[in-house]
Design brief:
The complex is a heterodimer of chains A (112) and B (501).
Chain A (H helix, E strand, L loop, with lengths): L2 H20 L5 E2 H10 L9 H10 L3 E6 L7 E6 L1 H30 L1
Antiparallel strand pairs in A: 1-3, 2-3
Chain B lengths: L3 E6 L2 E6 H18 L4 H19 L6 E2 L1 H11 L39 H9 L3 H12 L4 H12 L6 H8 L5 H9 L8 H4 L3 H25 L1 H8 L13 H4 L3 H27 L6 H37 L3 E9 L7 E7 L16 E2 L5 E7 L6 E9 L6 H6 L17 E4 L2 E5 L3 E2 L10 E7 L4 E4 L18 E4 L5 E3 L6
Parallel strand pairs in B: 2-3, 5-10, 5-13, 7-12
Antiparallel strand pairs in B: 1-2, 4-8, 6-11, 8-12, 9-10, 13-14, 14-15
Helix pairs in contact in B: 1-2, 1-3, 1-8, 4-5, 5-6, 6-13, 6-14, 10-13, 11-13, 13-14
Chain lengths: 112, 501
């Protein structure tokens, strides 16, 4: 079992949830999303995010608009759709349950 | 010194070192290969847009050039092509997701090429030494230049391996960043890559010239091809000879079908030349590969039909010849030559006068044979007197079953066979006039329809040969321009310096 691989798998699993969460309060362009995720150390390389963003957009959880930029190419600003909002709410509940479950199990094990 | 190329990413223009560009291009190719899904163009656009953004942040303000280390840094940030794979992403049908999986595609190998790299490309694909492929193509060239046309088609259809990713696919190695880097280290990539961005102007001019020549030949050939069936049609029903009509029932292919296949057979190579020419002039022409493939199919089909008909007719012809076999007699005639001791035997060759009155030779009712079918021999007479013998092959139609002839669609009346050969000659005192051709109605069936003229003369007989029809003389050596001879005691004609003694 490759530890790096397992880590990457765990991260990838929650990546969708985190992307939606980043967009919860404000619209962001791609690099902003990337920076937030990297700051949180959730992301090592950027590669995975691009196909994921496109998939979320194709599934109509996200929509985007173009905005001009002074320093570089035009930016793709993503925003959460109605559907995306509902999706995120449901994921948040699931995440709370999951993290609670994981906490209970890991804490229980560390006490023994 | 380092060559710099200008590129446009997401609408921004950058100057980039060539080696850095090559690596970036391979990287994007590799990423594209590992994404492999419906919206890959959109994703690649997003990635390129990000790369442009990162470049804009990192560009060296002094030189304004993107260097290799910038590209390396960006690949570090963006991740390996494998990182782009989303595990549960539905795979586009018929494609491989994982970049670690090797799959082979057929490419022309521009580096190990002799002409267009077709053979070396095939060698890569089938994992054999290209030398064997080349030998096969050379051998097939002797089959009516078959391999030449096949080569041209493949040249057009098969894409050239341009990028390092192409080269890896050609060799059947997985397209991932480590393999691409390996190719770079081995220096293999140097000969690829540049082709996409630039081409020398001399090469362009040569391409254009060759392209124009091919187009001209192609167009001329296409027009010429319309005449092929017309030429065949002038002798409609007489493909082999005057006696066999084309019989649809024998081959199962209508005459128009035969004409069409002849036309297709001759026109398609020219269409392909034309397409190749157009392709050389403009690389933007698309779908040439498909079109050539379809054309190639029809070409092979037409060759098949035509060969089938020809073989069928040949078998038919053999059968007919068999019918005629054994239906020939040899007709002999002996004529005295009244020569005095002082006389010179005058031998003159002339065209059979009847030939000029025959105006329907094309319809095949009559034909005259080759001049070479007349054999003249001169021997010593053992009777002390000069004489001449003529041997003719004569058709004997009493055994020939006319029903079996009509089975092969031979439309000729039996009476016309009776005069198979009719050799024309005349003797006026010392002058012998021989015809240099023979009239026959059966020329095509009797390849040995020969006339033998045997002249027997005594020793010291003087002979004058008129004209230059020396080739008729079978057992005597007659020199060009020498007309006067004397028959010696060993049975040969001896030249007498063109004077009469």
């Amino acid at each position: 079992m490759n530890i790096e691989n397992t880590k990457a798998q765990m991260r990838k699993g929650i990546l969708e949830f985190c992307i939606l969460s980043v967009l919860k309060d404000k619209d962001c362009y791609t690099s902003e999303i990337l920076d937030t995720l990297k700051e949180a150390k959730l992301l090592v390389v950027e590669g995975t995010v691009y196909p994921l963003l496109t998939r979320l957009k194709n599934d109509e959880l996200l929509s985007y608009r173009w905005e001009e930029s002074t320093s570089g190419p035009p930016r793709k600003y993503y925003r959460l759709t109605e559907l995306g909002n509902d999706f995120l709410k449901e994921l948040t509940v699931t995440w709370r349950e999951l993290s609670e479950a994981v906490n209970i199990i890991t804490n229980k094990n560390s006490h023994e | 010194m380092n060559k710099t190329v200008t590129i446009n990413i997401a609408g921004l223009v950058f100057h980039i070192d060539e080696d850095a560009y090559n690596k970036l291009d391979s990287y994007i190719q590799a990423v594209r290969n590992s994404i492999q899904q419906e919206s890959e163009d959109e994703i690649i656009a997003d990635i390129e847009s990000r790369i442009a953004e990162l470049f804009a942040e990192r560009i060296d303000p002094q030189t304004g050039v993107i260097r290799m280390n910038n590209v390396d840094e960006i690949i570090n940030i963006m991740g390996k092509p494998e990182d782009y794979i989303i595990e549960d992403e539905p795979v586009r049908p018929n494609n491989f997701t994982a970049t670690n999986k090797a799959y082979k595609k057929i490419y022309r190998d521009g580096e190990k090429r002799i002409l267009g790299g077709v053979c070396s490309g095939l060698g890569h694909y089938f994992n054999i030494d290209p030398v064997w492929v080349r030998i096969l193509f050379i051998l097939l060239f002797f089959a009516y230049g078959l391999s030449f046309v096949i080569y041209l088609i493949l040249w057009v259809i098969i894409p050239k391996a341009v990028t390092v990713a192409d080269v890896l696919e050609m060799k059947g190695e997985p397209v991932n960043i480590s393999n691409i880097e390996k190719q770079f280290r081995e220096g293999v990539s140097n000969s690829y890559q540049q082709i996409r961005t630039s081409g020398s102007s001399v090469a362009k001019v040569i391409r254009r010239i060759i392209g124009i020549i091919l187009i001209v030949f192609g167009v001329m050939g296409i027009f010429g091809s319309f005449f092929a069936p017309i030429i065949m049609n002038t002798g409609k029903g007489h493909i082999f000879n005057e006696f066999v009509n084309y019989d649809e029932a024998q081959t199962g292919i209508p005459f128009w079908g035969l004409s069409l296949s002849l036309f297709v057979m001759s026109v398609i190579p020219f269409i392909i030349l034309l397409l190749l020419g157009i392709r050389l002039l403009s690389s933007k022409v698309k779908h040439i590969g498909w079109v050539s493939g379809i054309l190639g199919f029809f070409w092979l089909l037409s060759i098949f039909i035509f060969s089938y008909v020809m073989i069928n007719l040949d078998i038919q012809k053999d059968k007919i010849e068999l019918l005629f076999e054994g239906n020939f007699d040899t007709k002999m005639s002996k004529t005295e030559l009244n020569l005095n001791d002082k006389d010179t035997l005058n031998i003159i060759f002339q065209k059979d006068q009847r030939i000029f009155t025959i105006n329907d030779t094309l319809t095949g009712k009559y034909k005259y044979s080759e001049v070479d079918d007349i054999y003249v021999e001169i021997f010593e007479s053992n009777t002390g007197k000069a004489y001449m013998e003529i041997e003719e092959k004569v058709f004997n139609n009493k055994d020939l079953n006319l029903k079996s002839l009509s089975k092969y669609n031979i439309q000729i009346e039996a009476t016309k066979f009776s005069n198979t050969l009719n050799y024309d000659y005349s003797i006026k005192s010392d002058t012998l006039v021989l015809s240099n051709a023979v009239l026959t109605t059966l020329n095509d069936f009797t390849e040995d329809s020969k006339v033998r003229v045997k002249i027997y003369i005594t020793e010291n007989q003087k002979v004058k040969i008129n004209g230059n029809d020396n080739r008729h003389f079978w057992n005597q050596h007659i020199e060009d321009g020498k007309h006067y001879y004397k028959f010696n005691n060993v049975g040969t004609l001896e030249n007498t310096n063109n004077t009469i003694n």
